C-alpha cells in the first residue's frame, strides 16, 4: 500500500457521518469535532477493489450455503470464534435477527483454523488478503488521529501494531412481517479501538448511530469504509475520541451483508489514558483497567448501549 495522507477537507454530509478522502499527494490533516461520537467514511483508501470484491463475494457465498454446511464451523464452548449468534447469555433473551461468523484473523499465528470455512474454496485466501490490507490502513488512520490532536503519530499506532484483529461477518435477512420490531444487532459500542466496516447493498441503510438520544441511519457509500471509534480508543484518548453507540436494523424486503474488522490494543497490559493524550488541565476520566477483564465482562453480558464503558469511568 502506498503512503497515505488525508485530503485537507472533511465533508459532514449527515448529522453523524464525516466523509474523509485519502490521497497519496496531500498533507496529513485530521480536523474532527472529537467530543461528539461520529461515524467516519473513508474513500480513496488504497485497499484494492479486487481485494474487497473477493472478500465480499466469498462471505456472501458462505452465508448462501445450507444451514448444515455452515454448522460445520459452529462456535464451541472454548471459543468466541465460529458460526453462530454472539452475546447469548441466557435461554430466554431475545436474539438478534442475523447470521454471524467471527474469526481471529491477525496475527496469522493466532488463527484457529477449526473455524475457517473451506467453502467457497477461495474464502481463506480472501480473508487473509483483505485483513492484511485493512490492518495497514487502520495503522495509518491511528497515526492521523494522534497527529490531529497534537500527539506523536506513533503514540496510538504503537498500542495496536501487531496486536489482535478480529473479523465478524454478518448476514441480515429481510423480515417483512416484523422489520420494525426486530434488530439485526442490538445497541452497543465496540470494545476494541478502531473498527473498519464494509457492506454490500448500499441502498439498505441498516447501520444506525445514536447521537443526542436519536438514531440516525448511516448512508454508506459504495467502496467506502465506515470507521467506528471503540471503547479502548476512548479510554486511551481520555475521551478525546468518543466510542460510537450503534445498532443494525432490518429491511422488510432486502438482505444486507457487512464485514467488521476489529483492531484491538495490547491485551496483556493495563489500559488507561495515554499521558500524551491527556490535555493539560483536563481531568483523567478513566483509571487503569485490566483489558483482559474488560473484554471478559463485555463478551459475557448482553449488549446494552454505552453502559459497559460507563462503568469504567472515574467519578
From TrEMBL:
One of its GO terms (molecular function) is metal ion binding. Pfam families: 2OG-FeII_Oxy, DIOX_N. InterPro entries: DIOX_N (IPR026992), IPNS-like_FE2OG_OXY (IPR044861), IPNS-like_sf (IPR027443), Oxoglu/Fe-dep_dioxygenase_dom (IPR005123), Plant_2OG-oxidoreductases (IPR050295). Keywords: Iron, Metal-binding, Oxidoreductase, Signal. Residues 1-31 form the signal peptide. PROSITE patterns: FE2OG_OXY (PS51471). Residues 163-265 form the Fe2OG dioxygenase domain. Belongs to the iron/ascorbate-dependent oxidoreductase family. This is Fe2OG dioxygenase domain-containing protein.
Amino acid at each position: 500500500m502506498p503512503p497515505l495522507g488525508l485530503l485537507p477537507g472533511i465533508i459532514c454530509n449527515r448529522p453523524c457521518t464525516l466523509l474523509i478522502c485519502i490521497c497519496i499527494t496531500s498533507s496529513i490533516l485530521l480536523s474532527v469535532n472529537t467530543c461528539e461520537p461520529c461515524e467516519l467514511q473513508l474513500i480513496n483508501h488504497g485497499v484494492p477493489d479486487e481485494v474487497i470484491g473477493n472478500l465480499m463475494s466469498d462471505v456472501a457465498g458462505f452465508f448462501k450455503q445450507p444451514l448444515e454446511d455452515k454448522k460445520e464451523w459452529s462456535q464451541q464452548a472454548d471459543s468466541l470464534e465460529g458460526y453462530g449468534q454472539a452475546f447469548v447469555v441466557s435461554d430466554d433473551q431475545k436474539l438478534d435477527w442475523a447470521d454471524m461468523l467471527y474469526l481471529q484473523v491477525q496475527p496469522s499465528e493466532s488463527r484457529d483454523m477449526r473455524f475457517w470455512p473451506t467453502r467457497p474454496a477461495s474464502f481463506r485466501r480472501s480473508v487473509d488478503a483483505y485483513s492484511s490490507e485493512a490492518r495497514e490502513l487502520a495503522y495509518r488512520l491511528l497515526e492521523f488521529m494522534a497527529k490531529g490532536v497534537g500527539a506523536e503519530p506513533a503514540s496510538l499506532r504503537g498500542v495496536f501494531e501487531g496486536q489482535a484483529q478480529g473479523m465478524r461477518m454478518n448476514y441480515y435477512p429481510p423480515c417483512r412481517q416484523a422489520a420494525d420490531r426486530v434488530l439485526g444487532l442490538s445497541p452497543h459500542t465496540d470494545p476494541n479501538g478502531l473498527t473498519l466496516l464494509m457492506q454490500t447493498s448500499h441502498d439498505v441503510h441498516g447501520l444506525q448511530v445514536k447521537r443526542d438520544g436519536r438514531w440516525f441511519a448511516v448512508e454508506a457509500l459504495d467502496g467506502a469504509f465506515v470507521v467506528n471509534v471503540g471503547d479502548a480508543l476512548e479510554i486511551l484518548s481520555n475521551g478525546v475520541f468518543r466510542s460510537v453507540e450503534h445498532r443494525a436494523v432490518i429491511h422488510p424486503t432486502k438482505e444486507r451483508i457487512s464485514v467488521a474488522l476489529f483492531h484491538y490494543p495490547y491485551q496483556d497490559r493495563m489500559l488507561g489514558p495515554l499521558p500524551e493524550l491527556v490535555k493539560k488541565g483536563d481531568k483523567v476520566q478513566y483509571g487503569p483497567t485490566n483489558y483482559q477483564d474488560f473484554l471478559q465482562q463485555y463478551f459475557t453480558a448482553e449488549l446494552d448501549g454505552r453502559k459497559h464503558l460507563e462503568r469504567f469511568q472515574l467519578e
